[in-house]
Specification:
Length: 385
């Protein structure tokens, strides 16, 4: 553990959301992912207190928070925090889960007031929960005047999500948020947890398009996919689907029932696509990179069955627009956002065209934005409040 810069008095922490460029539903199969942080974030204004009480307030926009207006959450830090009863979910479960992780490590957390706000939409597949967890962890490091490695911090936040939010997520989101570097995407090997920072070229822009369909990962479908993949790996006689290459899959495909076969086919092909996508990026070969995104989308829709009609529509409209190299759903799925790689010279026109065409068919006035790859969590002295 190293000392973190000492901040006395109020301070502000920001932690970005992330968009995953490719490598979807591969993290919990020990595979490869390629997320990057986006220029939308969660922000916590923190004021130290002299007691052992944490007082949380939320300025999250209506509809993005389960907090009633003006609601104040008070946590007694001198007592061990416990996960909420199943089925009673609240935004404060995320910070509470992170605090519990620090308590487990024996860190003595002083009292504080925290006000949470965000420029990041929640429930849109952009990791608002990971951003809130990592922002909380960074605030606690600052309050305790100690720090932990970004990898340990990411794992602690993932555990908070498992135990306090009931989502059995992989490691991608928390790693992406903790280890983000401006101008880079993170190629993460989810088995070894090694990261390679991949520089992004400004000739191609990243466009994030919110379908407007709320996704929720706690509803059981995500957990079901994990179990189906584990069952497929078992039947194939390997530790995880990461260990199956296309040739071995071809030989053994008959061992799998239809559903597991489809899930495994997606994961195996998606892991290969991540490598091909990175190579295309490094060669500045945008059409090939875009093609990999398109293949990824339809594999997630057909074989993995985590898309929805609106995301499929966005992928189809994008395929018909000049200036789009490729477009796919991003994140857990069942709604949320799509990500497109578009020509930088016409990126704004492309976003507008996609928006108009999507609205004509669905009536949804979708939010979209272009984003560069952003930096990870930051602490600044003073308060914005
Ligand atoms: C969610 C999870 C991640 C990952 C993606 C799908 O974002 O939190 O761990 O599994 O879904 O790629």
């Amino acid at each position: 553990m190293s000392e973190s810069p000492v901040v006395t008095g109020p301070f502000t922490v920001t932690a970005p959301g992330r968009v995953n460029l490719i490598g979807e539903h591969t993290d919990y199969n020990d595979g490869f992912v390629l997320p990057m942080a986006i220029e939308r974030h969660v922000m916590i204004d923190v004021r130290p207190r002299s007691d052992r009480v944490a007082v949380w307030r939320s300025d999250l926009p209506a509809g993005q928070s389960t907090a009633a207006d003006g609601e104040v959450i008070t946590l007694d830090l001198s007592r061990k925090l416990e996960p909420p009863a199943a089925g009673q979910r609240h935004w404060s479960d995320y910070p509470a889960g992170v605090i519990a992780g620090f308590q487990r490590l024996g860190w003595e957390i002083p009292g504080f007031e925290a006000r949470v706000s965000a420029t990041l939409p929640a429930g849109a597949g952009l990791s608002s929960s990971a951003a809130l967890e990592v922002a909380t962890a960074t605030a606690l490091e600052t309050l305790c005047r100690r720090s932990m490695s970004p990898e340990d911090k990411a794992l602690l936040c993932q555990q908070a999500e498992h135990e306090f939010a009931g989502v059995p997520c992989g490691i991608m989101d928390q790693f992406a948020v903790c280890l983000a570097r401006a101008g880079h995407a993170q190629l993460l090997d989810c088995r070894s947890r090694q990261i390679r920072q991949i520089p992004l070229d400004i000739a191609a822009s990243v466009l994030v398009f919110n379908s407007g369909v709320k996704h929720t990962l706690a509803d059981g479908e995500y957990a079901k996919r994990r179990l189906e993949c584990a069952a497929a790996a078992d039947l194939l006689g390997v530790r995880s689907l990461r260990d199956v290459d296309a040739a071995r899959f071809g030989e053994r495909i008959a061992l799998l029932p239809e559903r597991q076969r489809c899930r495994a086919r997606h994961v195996i092909a998606e892991n290969i696509r991540v490598g091909e996508f990175v190579e295309a990026l490094e060669n500045r070969d945008w059409p090939t990179a875009g093609r990999k995104m398109v293949e990824s989308h339809w594999s997630l829709s057909d074989d993995y069955q985590v898309s929805c009609p609106e995301l499929d529509l966005i992928a189809s409209i994008a395929a018909s627009l000049p200036g789009v190299y490729g477009c796919r759903m991003t994140g857990g799925g069942f709604g949320g956002c799509a990500v497109a790689l578009v020509a930088a010279t016409s990126a704004v026109e492309t976003g507008r065209a996609l928006h108009n065409s999507y609205r004509e068919t669905t009536g949804i006035d979708a939010e979209w934005f272009l984003t560069a790859a952003a930096h990870g969590p930051r602490v600044t002295a003073g308060s914005a409040a």
